[in-house]
User: What shape does this take?
Amino acid sequence: MRRWRLWLGLIISGAFLYLALRGLSLDQVLKALRGANYWWLLPGIAVYFLAVWARTWRWHYLLRPLKPIPLRTLFPVVAIGYMGNNIYPARAGELLRAYILKRQERVSISANLATVVVERIFDGLVMLLFVFVTLPISGLGGKYQVLVTTFSLLFFGALLLFMVMAVRPEWFKRLLALLLGLVPSRFHGPAHETLDRFLEGLESLRSGRAVLMIFLSSVVVWLLETVKYWLVMHAFPFEVSFYVLMLMNGVVNLFTTLPAAPGYVGTFDLPGIEILQRFGVPHDVATGYTLVLHAALWFPITAVGAFYLWRARLSWAQVQADLQGDEEARELDLVSDDEALGKVWNEPSGVAGI
Assistant: This one.
C-alpha cells in the first residue's frame, strides 16, 4: 500500500459521510438509537457467522485443486482476513490471509491471492444479480442503472478473462514470454514462476460444475447476510420488504469496492441510508439502522479475527520480517506495502500487541 491510497480512501470516506449526514438532526438519530431493541442483534450476528462459515466452505472448495484443507483450519484464517480488512487500509486482510495460509499450509501466495480474486469476482456478480432482480420492482433507476451496467462490464469481463486463463494457460504463458523480451533476463524466471502459481489458483474455473458450485455458494453467502439485514431491521420502527434489503445489500457492497477508510466507512453508509429513504424510511431512522447494522457487521468478526491472530501468537513485526525474507513476496512487491501497513499497525489507533 502506498500512502496516497490511504489518503484517497480517507478523502472518499469523508465525502460520503458528509453527504450521508448532511442536514441530519443528531438528536433525532440518538433518539432512534436509544429506542432500538438491540436483542435483535443476537440472531443477526449468529446468521452472519453462518455466512462466514459458508464463505469458508467456498474458499475450501476453491483451494481443493491446490491442497485439501479442513474448514476448521480455514475458518480462523478467514476471520483474520476480515479483521485485517476492517482495521487496515487497502484490504490488508487479503495479504494476511495469503501470508497465514502459506505459513500454515505451504500454499503459495500467488495461488492463494488468485483464489481470493475469484471470490471477489463471484461476490460482485451476486451483488449485481441482487440489484438486477430487485431494481425493476423498486422503481429506482438513473444512477443505479448506470451502476449495474458499469459493474456488470467489469465483473463479467474479469470472470471471462480468468476462465480463459484457467482453460488456456499456455496462451498467457506465451504472451508473458513475448513481453519479457522487453526486459532484462534476470526478471524472466521470477515472472514465469509467479504466473505459474497464479494460474494454479485458477484451476477451479476449469470445470463448469465447479463454477456453478462457487456461484451457488456465493448466493447462499449473500442471502444469509441479507437475512442479517432483515433481523436487525426489527430492532427499529420501520419495515421494508426483503427485496428492498437485497437491493440495499447489493448496492452498498458494490460501493464498498471503492477506495475508503478502513472498515468501509462512508461507502457503506451513504448508499444504504439513501435507499431506505427512497422507500419511505425517515432519514434519522435510516441513519440509525445503517450505523447499527454497520457496527454489527464490523465488530463481532473483527473481535473473532483478533482473537485468532492473538492465539496464533503473531505480531505484525513477525509478519513483516517473514515477508521480507520471502522470495515470492518480494517478487510480488508485497514487502514495501507491508512496511507501510506496519506503520499503521503500530499507531495508537491500531491494535498494537496482537
Remarks:
- The first helix runs from residue 3 to 21.
